[in-house]
Amino acid sequence: MSPNMKAAIALLLTLFGSHLLVHGSADAADGLRYDYSASTECKSHSEPALYQGGILTESTRKTEVKNVRTENGASSPGFVLSNLTADTIYSFSCWVQIKGRDSALIKARLNTASGTTCIGTTLARSHCWSFLKGGFVLDSPSLSSLLYFKASDQNDTTILVKSASLQPFSQEQWNQHREDSIQKRRKRFITVHVSDAQGNRVRGANVSAQQLSKDFPFGSAIASTILGNKPYQDWFAERFNAAVFENELKWYATEPQPGKLNYTLADGMLEFVRAHQISVRGHNIFWEDPKYTPSWVRNLTGNALKAAVNSRIRSLLRRYKGDFVHWDVSNEMLHFNFYEERLGPNATLEFFQTAKQADPLTTLFMNDFNVVETCEDDNASVDNYVVRLRQLMQGDEGMLQGIGLEGHFGKPNIPLMRAVLDKLATLKLPVWLTEIDISRNLGLQNQAAYLEEVLREGFSHPSMHGIMLWTALDKSGTCYQMCLTDTNFQNLPTGDEVDKLLKEWQSIDIKGQTNVRGSYSFSAFLGEHEVSVSSGNATKRVTFSLDGSQETKHINVQL
Ligand SMILES: *[C@@H]1O[C@H](CO)[C@@H](O)[C@H](O)[C@H]1NC(C)=O
Ligand SMILES: *[C@@H]1O[C@H](CO)[C@@H](O)[C@H](O)[C@H]1NC(C)=O
Ligand SMILES: *[C@@H]1O[C@H](CO)[C@@H](O)[C@H](O)[C@H]1NC(C)=O
Ligand SMILES: *[C@@H]1O[C@H](CO)[C@@H](O)[C@H](O)[C@H]1NC(C)=O
Ligand SMILES: *[C@@H]1O[C@H](CO)[C@@H](O)[C@H](O)[C@H]1NC(C)=O
Ligand SMILES: *[C@@H]1O[C@H](CO)[C@@H](O)[C@H](O)[C@H]1NC(C)=O
Ligand SMILES: *[C@@H]1O[C@H](CO)[C@@H](O)[C@H](O)[C@H]1NC(C)=O
Ligand SMILES: *[C@@H]1O[C@H](CO)[C@@H](O)[C@H](O)[C@H]1NC(C)=O
């Protein structure tokens, strides 16, 4: 802990005495539910603390701004937290207002003996209250920690905090939230009623069910290396129902020189996905990063750039109308602004409008990194993303239809990830994880372990509509950060993890017998199913589609 932090803690102690000390251990009642609520509006009144404040006691919640000095000399309210335990999942939330300036990105930070990390952010304003939601998990216990707030631009900002809440969850409780959510969103109960021609209930009939296809899109990026590569094709098609082309649709790939369009690779890859009933995301129309803009486009300005841009959208979307389920229209615009800088602040909106005209049935996405991965990146704070997303949702009945989160993770902060998803869910648009991987610097075993956590969190979140990995195998036999297999398509630990989850998230070999009422009930993942019912030498098969609903699905079978 830095001397400044010690001084800050000492100051807090003298200001508030021991009632600010709160116990960090998780003794929450078993089965404590997670509160998914969130807000992305600035409200005239703060709302009550989640979990009634959790382990932050009543007296601390009444604490208003006290000028506690943080490292950079700014003032912040703070909480001294005693005895935080390792591996406990801490969910943090509060309402924030600032004074003396209109708006600022405010970060909640946690200082422990092992350093200081961001645990959540909010775009705070004067005169209204903004919701901050995040969390943390510690690698080792911390006897004394300081949770404080600061403006990300380091400027001295007066920060007011209300309704703060710190709720510890055990790993078991957290897993239970996921299970509950999966049962509610990804599965459904089915009752099979079996009768004979006279209407008698058939008791003791054998019922078995198989899932034929999955509703939830789960897939990965592929590269042109898959063309003509049977082992790669088989490996991919056996597992996934969704794909995205890593680079082959990017402008630099399809039009390396002005007017020299070449869709050979993209067409070949499209044939592969069509042959295997795999749906495919279109990635991407424009990439705001100048580094990945074709060099000839980088040289264009004004009307020449405008003409090139229009011809790019039209030729791409006309050629592939109906083929791609999504298009990432303006990639990474939280970090870069190549087009808006040159074509004006409405350029992105116009891209969306043109794309929607060209292919009205595709879903148009924004796509960016570091929104869900961390809260250290000021460009990609969740509220910053929400502001940009809202701009595109307004006007002409909303151009934007989906929220893309790349998901290039280091060591994931799982409660922060859930909190960010909660905030994005307030927009009521489909959310997709579009490019998940774990940094190669962490090693194969950690990649697998962290991947499991990220996938479980993503799959179980109520707002999640699809998950894509970013594991295309390139010509050099490497992947961007993380492969699932070696070059012989033998699974790496990450591939085993994916296979384990794919198996867990489907309903195969469900078996049972009808009860005295002639019925058999079970729960299955959404998708197409075949149920087979037999009694004696009579057998009936029924296929049906199980779509999302809270109602039990009833199937009547007559033997
Ligand atoms: C924290 O834990 C230590 C060691 O178990 C204990 O002595 C101390 O009283 C605890 N502090 C609080 C505030 O609970
Ligand atoms: C932050 O402070 C610096 C120097 O004090 C000032 O130049 C700058 O405008 C401030 N930024 C904001 C956003 O207030
Ligand atoms: C188009 O791309 C393919 C695949 O990269 C390449 O083999 C072919 O030569 C290209 N065609 C032209 C006309 O450049
Ligand atoms: C872009 O402009 C620079 C400087 O005018 C020139 O040297 C370069 O050849 C141009 N590049 C392309 C691809 O046109
Ligand atoms: C992020 O934002 C800052 C300005 O706030 C800018 O200088 C920087 O280039 C941006 N881009 C990235 C990739 O971080
Ligand atoms: C951007 O679009 C808005 C709404 O259509 C319009 O009012 C504004 O003038 C446009 N701005 C520019 C710079 O074209
Ligand atoms: C159900 O299957 C079991 C095992 O195959 C068989 O012994 C039994 O007779 C079957 N029951 C009926 C009602 O067909
Ligand atoms: C099996 O079917 C045959 C004719 O379809 C019928 O005669 C016979 O009784 C059935 N056996 C049983 C055990 O139900």
TrEMBL record:
<dbReference type="Pfam" id="PF00331">
    <property type="entry name" value="Glyco_hydro_10"/>
</dbReference>
<keyword id="KW-0732">Signal</keyword>
<keyword id="KW-0119">Carbohydrate metabolism</keyword>
<dbReference type="GO" id="GO:0031176">
    <property type="term" value="F:endo-1,4-beta-xylanase activity"/>
</dbReference>
<comment type="similarity">
    <text>Belongs to the glycosyl hydrolase 10 (cellulase F) family.</text>
</comment>
<dbReference type="InterPro" id="IPR044846">
    <property type="entry name" value="GH10"/>
</dbReference>
<keyword id="KW-0624">Polysaccharide degradation</keyword>
<dbReference type="GO" id="GO:0000272">
    <property type="term" value="P:polysaccharide catabolic process"/>
</dbReference>
<feature type="signal peptide">
    <location>
        <begin position="1"/>
        <end position="24"/>
    </location>
</feature>
<protein>
    <recommendedName>
        <fullName>GH10 domain-containing protein</fullName>
    </recommendedName>
</protein>
<dbReference type="InterPro" id="IPR001000">
    <property type="entry name" value="GH10_dom"/>
</dbReference>
<dbReference type="InterPro" id="IPR017853">
    <property type="entry name" value="GH"/>
</dbReference>
<keyword id="KW-0378">Hydrolase</keyword>
<feature type="domain" description="GH10">
    <location>
        <begin position="206"/>
        <end position="501"/>
    </location>
</feature>
